């Protein structure tokens, strides 16, 4: 079944994308939760008109996302964590800590837009991807150090 997404859904698509999903997923979850609508001809026409009207606004948002990505640049964040004798940290570093560290640097980025590849359980250098816009993704380097 083809549907039109009403908001960004991780792993599926972005707002106003027309995507194909299984019928049950659309009827039982996406449509009742108001995350999507069925992609009928009239809904596609409405979508086209909305996209045309929002093109200028979207360009402004993309420019802002690019500006944030350029501001972060090659910055390497330093995340402090309590460490055991073997260099293994207690717990793990999460996107919340990265979001807070970015906020301290002057970048207010929601933790849901940050994804860390793999588990961060030992001291070292890691990478995370920040999804600022559907066309602007930035790789952030961070270093976990012991307290």
How would you portray this structure in words?
The chain contains three helices and seven strands. The strands form two sheets. Strands 4-7-6-5 form a four-stranded mixed beta sheet. A three-stranded antiparallel beta sheet has the order 2-1-3, covered by helices on one side. It has two domains: 2-61, Ribosomal Protein L9, domain 1, CATH 3.40.5.10; 70-146, Ribosomal Protein L9, domain 2. It has helices at residues 23-30, 41-72, 95-104, and strands at residues 2-5, 18-20, 36-38, 76-81, 114-116, 124-133, 136-146. With 147 residues, it is α+β, with helices and mostly antiparallel strands. Helix content is 34%, strand content 27%.
Quick recap:
With about 150 residues, the chain is α+β, with helices and mostly antiparallel strands. It folds into two domains: about 1-60, Ribosomal protein L9, N-terminal domain (Ribosomal Protein L9, domain 1); about 70-145, Ribosomal Protein L9, domain 2.
Map the helices and strands:
Blueprint: E1 2-5, E2 18-20, H1 23-30, E3 36-38, H2 41-72, E4 76-81, H3 95-104, E5 114-116, E6 124-133, E7 136-146
Parallel strand pairs: 4-7
Antiparallel strand pairs: 1-2, 1-3, 5-6, 6-7
List keywords for this structure.
alpha+beta, 2 domains, 147 residues, four-stranded mixed β-sheet, Ribosomal Protein L9, domain 2, Ribosomal Protein L9, domain 1, 3 helices
**Strand content bin:** 25-35%
Number of helices, counting only DSSP H or I runs of 4 residues or more: 3
CATH architecture of the largest domain: Roll
Low-pLDDT segments: none
Radius of gyration over C-alpha positions, nearest whole angstrom: 19 Å
CATH superfamily of the largest domain: Ribosomal protein L9, C-terminal domain
User: How would you describe the oligomerization state of the chains in this entry?
Assistant: single chain
Instruction: Count the E strands.
Output: 7
Number of domains: 2
* Helicity level: 25-40%
Q: Taking all residues together, what is the mean pLDDT?
A: 89
Biggest sheet: strands side by side, in what order? 4-7-6-5
3D shape: elongated
Q: Give a quick account of the main beta sheet: strands, pairing sense, barrel closure.
A: 4 strands, mixed
Fold-level CATH name of the largest domain: Ribosomal Protein L9, domain 2
Distance between the termini: 52 Å
Q: Could you give the order of the helices and strands? A: EEHEHEHEEE
User: What would you call the structural class?
Assistant: alpha+beta
CATH class of the largest domain, named Alpha Beta
């Amino acid at each position: 079944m083809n549907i039109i997404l009403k908001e960004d859904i991780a792993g599926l698509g972005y707002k106003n994308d027309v995507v194909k999903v299984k019928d049950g997923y659309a009827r039982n979850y996406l449509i009742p939760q108001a995350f999507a609508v069925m992609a009928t001809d009239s809904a596609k026409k409405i979508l086209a008109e909305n996209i045309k009207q929002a093109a200028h606004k979207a360009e402004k948002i993309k420019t802002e996302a690019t500006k944030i990505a350029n501001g972060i640049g090659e910055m390497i964040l330093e995340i402090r964590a309590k460490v055991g004798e073997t260099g293994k940290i207690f717990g793990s570093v999460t996107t919340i800590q990265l979001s807070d560290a970015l906020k301290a640097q002057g970048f207010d980025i929601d933790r849901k837009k940050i994804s860390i590849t793999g588990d961060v359980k030992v001291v070292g250098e890691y990478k995370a991807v920040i999804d600022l816009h559907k066309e602007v993704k930035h790789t952030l380097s961070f270093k976990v150090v012991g307290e």
